[in-house]
Specification:
The structure is a single chain. This protein is 28% helix and 25% strand. By secondary structure, the chain is an alpha/beta fold. It has two domains: 2-157 and 299-349, Quinone Oxidoreductase, Chain A, domain 1 (Alpha-Beta Complex), CATH 3.90.180; 158-295, NAD(P)-binding Rossmann-like Domain (Rossmann fold), CATH 3.40.50.720. α3 (149-169) packs across α4 and α3 packs across α9.
Length: 351
Amino acid sequence: MRGLVFLGERRLELREFPEPKPGFSEVVIQMRASGICGTDLKRYRAPLSKGADPSALPASGHEPCGEVIEIGPGVRKIKVGDRILPFHYLGCGHCRWCNAGYFQLCIDPEIGHLSGKNVLLGTTCNGSNADRIAIDETMCILMPDELSYEEGAACACVAATAHDALQKLNVSGRDTLAIYGQGPVGLSTTVLAVATGARVIVVEPSAYRRELAKSLGCAVALDPRETDPVETIKGLTNGEGADATLDSTGIAETRVNTIRSARIYGRACFVGTAANETSFNVHSDIQWKQLTIYGTWTTNKSGMAEFAHYVADRKVPLKKIITHRFRLEQAAEAYKLFDAGETGKVVFTWE
C-alpha cells in the first residue's frame, strides 16, 4: 500500500508500506479522506532530526476518516463496513486523563505524552496519509450517516478543536467574538461561531481567506497590515473590546493582540501552537481587566464524537471550509498550495 512520508525541508515521498494486519483489539481502516492540518506544516518545513533514519519514517497525517475492512481478535463493538472517525491518539487507557477520553494527556510514565512513546497517528505510527491503517478499537468513533467522509476528516482535528475552544469560551448569540487567523482552525471557528448567532470579527492578512470568512458569515474581516486590530476591534465594540477572543495562529504578536482586544471581564482562548515566547503585562492586560484565559489542545474522544453529531444534527455547513481536494499522488502540489496560506481546508480523497 502507499503512504506519504515527510522527508523535511518541504520534500515528500510516496512510499510502499506493508499491508496492515489487525492485532488484538485492532481494526483496519480503508482511508476515504484525510485532512491536512496546520501542524503538519511544521514537519513538512523542518529538517530531519539528527540521527533520524529516513527509512523508518511513518506515513504522515492525523486527520483520518474511513471504513472498517478487517477486524482482529478481541474486537467487540466495531464491525466490517462501519464508517469510522478515528481519534488520532491512544494512551495507557488507565490513568485519570485516559479515562476522561483525553488520550493525548496520558500521564503514564512509560507511554504517556511526555514519554514520546504514546500512539499518535502520523508520528509514532502510520497515519492517515496512507491507503490503510490499523488502529485500536478504542480509537474508533462511529460516524453519523449524514456526515460525509470529507466532513469527518475536518472533524478529526481542526473543527473539533475549534468547537472545544468555543465551548470553553461559552460563545453565544449575545457575544462579539474576535478570531485571529483564518487557516483551517480559524475558519472552523468562524463557521461554528456564526451558527451560534455570535457577531464574528476576523483578523487575517490573506485576502483569499478574508473573503472566505465573509462567505461563511463573519461580520467584519480585518487586514492587520492595514489597521491596528486591537484599536479597530475596540472601535467596533463601543470602545470596550470583544466579549471573547481567540488566537488560532500561535504567533507571539497575535497572542498579545488576542489578550488586548478582549474587554473587561472578557474571555480569551489560545488554540494555535508555536514554540515561541509571548510577553504580556500581567497587571494591565490580565489582572486589571479581570480576564479569563483558556488554553485548548484538541478535544477528547467523547467531545469529538459529540461534535460529529452536532454538525450532522444542526446541519452546520462545515463542508464550506473545504476548498481544495487532492489525490494522494498529488501530495507535492497539495502541500505546496497549503504552505502558501491561500486555501481553506485541504483534504486528500480516495473516492
